[in-house]
Amino acid sequence: MPRSTRRRPALTHPATEDIDLFDVLHALSDPTRMTIVSVLRAEAERPCGTFPVDVAPSTLSHHFKVLRESGLIIQREEANRRISALRTVDLEHRFPGLLDSVLAAYVRGVEERAVTA
Amino acid sequence: MPRSTRRRPALTHPATEDIDLFDVLHALSDPTRMTIVSVLRAEAERPCGTFPVDVAPSTLSHHFKVLRESGLIIQREEANRRISALRTVDLEHRFPGLLDSVLAAYVRGVEERAVTA
Fold first, then answer.
1. Are B83 and B45 in contact (CB under 8 A)?
2. Which chain A residues in 50-109 lie under 8 Å from chain B, judged by CB atoms?
3. Chain B residue numbers touching A113 (CB-CB < 8 A)
Protein backbone atom coordinates (compact mmCIF):
# COMPACT_ATOMS: atom_id res chain seq x y z
CA MET A 1 0.00 0.00 0.00
CA PRO A 2 1.48 3.38 -0.95
CA ARG A 3 2.39 5.48 2.02
CA SER A 4 0.15 8.39 1.00
CA THR A 5 -2.94 6.19 0.95
CA ARG A 6 -2.24 4.90 4.43
CA ARG A 7 -1.56 8.26 5.99
CA ARG A 8 -4.44 10.36 4.77
CA PRO A 9 -8.16 9.71 4.59
CA ALA A 10 -9.96 10.75 1.42
CA LEU A 11 -11.01 14.39 1.45
CA THR A 12 -14.76 14.85 1.19
CA HIS A 13 -16.54 18.00 0.02
CA PRO A 14 -20.24 18.82 -0.09
CA ALA A 15 -21.84 19.13 -3.53
CA THR A 16 -22.59 22.73 -4.47
CA GLU A 17 -26.32 22.28 -3.93
CA ASP A 18 -25.68 20.83 -0.47
CA ILE A 19 -23.68 23.82 0.78
CA ASP A 20 -25.59 24.98 3.85
CA LEU A 21 -25.88 28.66 4.75
CA PHE A 22 -25.62 28.01 8.49
CA ASP A 23 -22.49 25.90 8.04
CA VAL A 24 -20.96 28.68 5.93
CA LEU A 25 -21.82 31.40 8.48
CA HIS A 26 -20.48 29.25 11.30
CA ALA A 27 -17.27 28.61 9.36
CA LEU A 28 -16.85 32.35 8.80
CA SER A 29 -17.52 33.24 12.45
CA ASP A 30 -13.94 32.53 13.51
CA PRO A 31 -11.01 34.94 12.96
CA THR A 32 -8.50 32.24 11.94
CA ARG A 33 -10.88 30.73 9.41
CA MET A 34 -11.79 34.18 8.10
CA THR A 35 -8.08 34.95 7.62
CA ILE A 36 -7.69 31.76 5.58
CA VAL A 37 -10.72 32.62 3.44
CA SER A 38 -9.55 36.19 2.85
CA VAL A 39 -6.08 35.00 1.78
CA LEU A 40 -7.63 32.46 -0.61
CA ARG A 41 -9.87 35.17 -2.03
CA ALA A 42 -6.75 36.88 -3.32
CA GLU A 43 -4.89 33.78 -4.51
CA ALA A 44 -5.84 30.84 -6.69
CA GLU A 45 -4.65 28.26 -4.18
CA ARG A 46 -2.20 27.77 -1.37
CA PRO A 47 -0.59 24.97 0.70
CA CYS A 48 -2.09 24.62 4.20
CA GLY A 49 1.04 25.39 6.19
CA THR A 50 1.70 28.75 4.53
CA PHE A 51 -1.16 30.88 5.86
CA PRO A 52 -0.39 33.88 8.11
CA VAL A 53 -2.13 32.43 11.17
CA ASP A 54 -0.68 31.76 14.59
CA VAL A 55 -2.33 28.57 15.83
CA ALA A 56 -1.16 25.04 16.67
CA PRO A 57 -1.07 22.57 13.74
CA SER A 58 -3.89 20.46 15.21
CA THR A 59 -6.06 23.57 15.62
CA LEU A 60 -5.27 24.66 12.10
CA SER A 61 -6.15 21.21 10.82
CA HIS A 62 -9.53 21.49 12.55
CA HIS A 63 -10.14 24.91 11.00
CA PHE A 64 -9.42 23.56 7.51
CA LYS A 65 -11.80 20.67 8.14
CA VAL A 66 -14.58 23.08 9.16
CA LEU A 67 -13.93 25.20 6.07
CA ARG A 68 -13.89 22.16 3.76
CA GLU A 69 -16.98 20.52 5.22
CA SER A 70 -18.92 23.80 5.06
CA GLY A 71 -18.18 24.02 1.33
CA LEU A 72 -16.07 27.18 1.57
CA ILE A 73 -12.86 25.56 0.36
CA ILE A 74 -11.76 22.63 -1.73
CA GLN A 75 -8.60 20.72 -0.85
CA ARG A 76 -6.41 18.33 -2.78
CA GLU A 77 -3.28 16.37 -2.00
CA GLU A 78 -0.15 17.12 -4.00
CA ALA A 79 2.95 15.16 -3.03
CA ASN A 80 3.29 15.82 0.69
CA ARG A 81 1.25 19.00 0.62
CA ARG A 82 -2.43 19.70 1.00
CA ILE A 83 -3.50 22.53 -1.29
CA SER A 84 -6.56 24.66 -0.54
CA ALA A 85 -8.65 26.86 -2.81
CA LEU A 86 -11.78 28.89 -2.24
CA ARG A 87 -14.93 27.52 -3.94
CA THR A 88 -15.69 30.97 -5.30
CA VAL A 89 -17.84 29.89 -8.26
CA ASP A 90 -19.82 27.34 -6.23
CA LEU A 91 -20.44 29.86 -3.44
CA GLU A 92 -21.46 32.60 -5.83
CA HIS A 93 -23.86 30.19 -7.51
CA ARG A 94 -25.33 29.10 -4.18
CA PHE A 95 -25.39 32.46 -2.32
CA PRO A 96 -24.87 35.35 -4.78
CA GLY A 97 -22.99 38.25 -3.23
CA LEU A 98 -22.72 36.70 0.23
CA LEU A 99 -18.99 36.04 0.33
CA ASP A 100 -18.17 39.48 -1.09
CA SER A 101 -20.24 41.30 1.52
CA VAL A 102 -18.84 39.25 4.40
CA LEU A 103 -15.27 39.78 3.21
CA ALA A 104 -15.91 43.50 2.68
CA ALA A 105 -17.12 43.73 6.29
CA TYR A 106 -14.03 41.83 7.43
CA VAL A 107 -11.60 44.01 5.46
CA ARG A 108 -13.33 47.11 6.80
CA GLY A 109 -12.80 45.82 10.36
CA VAL A 110 -9.14 45.06 9.69
CA GLU A 111 -8.64 48.58 8.31
CA GLU A 112 -10.39 50.11 11.34
CA ARG A 113 -8.12 48.23 13.73
CA ALA A 114 -5.08 49.40 11.76
CA VAL A 115 -6.21 53.03 12.12
CA THR A 116 -6.87 52.79 15.87
CA ALA A 117 -3.78 50.70 16.67
CA MET B 1 -38.86 47.91 45.15
CA PRO B 2 -41.13 47.49 42.11
CA ARG B 3 -41.55 43.90 41.09
CA SER B 4 -40.24 44.46 37.56
CA THR B 5 -36.93 45.81 38.87
CA ARG B 6 -36.43 42.78 41.04
CA ARG B 7 -37.28 40.23 38.39
CA ARG B 8 -35.26 41.37 35.42
CA PRO B 9 -31.65 42.41 35.08
CA ALA B 10 -30.92 45.48 32.98
CA LEU B 11 -30.61 44.71 29.28
CA THR B 12 -27.21 45.55 27.86
CA HIS B 13 -26.42 46.19 24.21
CA PRO B 14 -23.09 46.81 22.49
CA ALA B 15 -22.47 50.29 21.07
CA THR B 16 -22.68 50.40 17.29
CA GLU B 17 -18.92 50.74 16.92
CA ASP B 18 -18.39 47.71 19.16
CA ILE B 19 -20.55 45.37 17.08
CA ASP B 20 -18.22 42.55 16.12
CA LEU B 21 -18.44 40.79 12.76
CA PHE B 22 -17.60 37.38 14.20
CA ASP B 23 -20.29 37.74 16.88
CA VAL B 24 -22.81 38.72 14.19
CA LEU B 25 -21.88 35.79 11.94
CA HIS B 26 -22.04 33.39 14.88
CA ALA B 27 -25.45 34.77 15.89
CA LEU B 28 -26.71 34.26 12.32
CA SER B 29 -25.33 30.71 12.06
CA ASP B 30 -28.33 29.19 13.86
CA PRO B 31 -31.72 28.50 12.17
CA THR B 32 -33.82 29.68 15.14
CA ARG B 33 -31.90 32.93 15.46
CA MET B 34 -32.05 33.47 11.70
CA THR B 35 -35.84 33.00 11.79
CA ILE B 36 -36.10 35.67 14.50
CA VAL B 37 -33.92 38.06 12.48
CA SER B 38 -35.87 37.48 9.27
CA VAL B 39 -39.20 38.11 11.05
CA LEU B 40 -37.82 41.32 12.58
CA ARG B 41 -36.58 42.41 9.17
CA ALA B 42 -40.23 42.60 8.05
CA GLU B 43 -41.68 44.15 11.23
CA ALA B 44 -40.73 47.14 13.34
CA GLU B 45 -40.74 45.20 16.59
CA ARG B 46 -42.27 42.18 18.21
CA PRO B 47 -42.73 40.63 21.68
CA CYS B 48 -40.37 37.71 22.38
CA GLY B 49 -43.00 35.00 22.82
CA THR B 50 -44.68 35.58 19.46
CA PHE B 51 -42.05 34.35 17.01
CA PRO B 52 -42.78 31.30 14.81
CA VAL B 53 -40.09 29.12 16.37
CA ASP B 54 -40.48 25.77 18.08
CA VAL B 55 -37.97 25.71 20.95
CA ALA B 56 -38.20 25.60 24.75
CA PRO B 57 -38.55 28.99 26.51
CA SER B 58 -35.09 28.69 28.12
CA THR B 59 -33.54 27.94 24.72
CA LEU B 60 -35.38 30.84 23.15
CA SER B 61 -34.19 33.10 25.94
CA HIS B 62 -30.61 32.06 25.19
CA HIS B 63 -31.07 32.77 21.48
CA PHE B 64 -32.37 36.28 22.22
CA LYS B 65 -29.39 36.88 24.49
CA VAL B 66 -26.96 35.85 21.74
CA LEU B 67 -28.77 38.11 19.26
CA ARG B 68 -28.80 41.05 21.67
CA GLU B 69 -25.16 40.71 22.76
CA SER B 70 -24.02 40.39 19.14
CA GLY B 71 -25.68 43.72 18.34
CA LEU B 72 -28.23 42.27 15.93
CA ILE B 73 -31.29 43.19 18.02
CA ILE B 74 -32.27 45.72 20.65
CA GLN B 75 -34.66 44.76 23.42
CA ARG B 76 -36.78 46.78 25.83
CA GLU B 77 -39.19 45.93 28.62
CA GLU B 78 -42.80 47.01 28.27
CA ALA B 79 -45.11 45.99 31.11
CA ASN B 80 -44.63 42.21 31.32
CA ARG B 81 -43.34 41.87 27.79
CA ARG B 82 -39.88 42.05 26.29
CA ILE B 83 -39.99 43.70 22.87
CA SER B 84 -37.30 43.05 20.24
CA ALA B 85 -36.30 45.05 17.20
CA LEU B 86 -33.60 44.61 14.59
CA ARG B 87 -30.75 47.17 14.77
CA THR B 88 -31.05 47.73 11.03
CA VAL B 89 -29.53 51.23 10.92
CA ASP B 90 -26.65 50.34 13.26
CA LEU B 91 -25.86 47.18 11.30
CA GLU B 92 -26.03 48.95 7.96
CA HIS B 93 -23.68 51.62 9.30
CA ARG B 94 -21.28 49.03 10.66
CA PHE B 95 -21.38 46.44 7.85
CA PRO B 96 -23.05 47.92 4.74
CA GLY B 97 -25.02 45.35 2.76
CA LEU B 98 -24.11 42.42 5.00
CA LEU B 99 -27.50 41.74 6.56
CA ASP B 100 -29.29 42.06 3.22
CA SER B 101 -27.03 39.54 1.52
CA VAL B 102 -27.24 37.05 4.41
CA LEU B 103 -31.05 37.34 4.55
CA ALA B 104 -31.28 37.03 0.76
CA ALA B 105 -29.28 33.79 0.98
CA TYR B 106 -31.55 32.58 3.77
CA VAL B 107 -34.78 33.40 1.90
CA ARG B 108 -33.42 31.68 -1.18
CA GLY B 109 -32.75 28.56 0.90
CA VAL B 110 -36.26 28.65 2.41
CA GLU B 111 -37.77 28.91 -1.08
CA GLU B 112 -35.62 26.01 -2.34
CA ARG B 113 -36.83 23.82 0.51
CA ALA B 114 -40.44 24.79 -0.24
CA VAL B 115 -40.00 23.71 -3.89
CA THR B 116 -38.40 20.35 -3.04
CA ALA B 117 -40.75 19.54 -0.12
1. yes
2. 94-98, 100-102, 104-106, 108-109
3. none
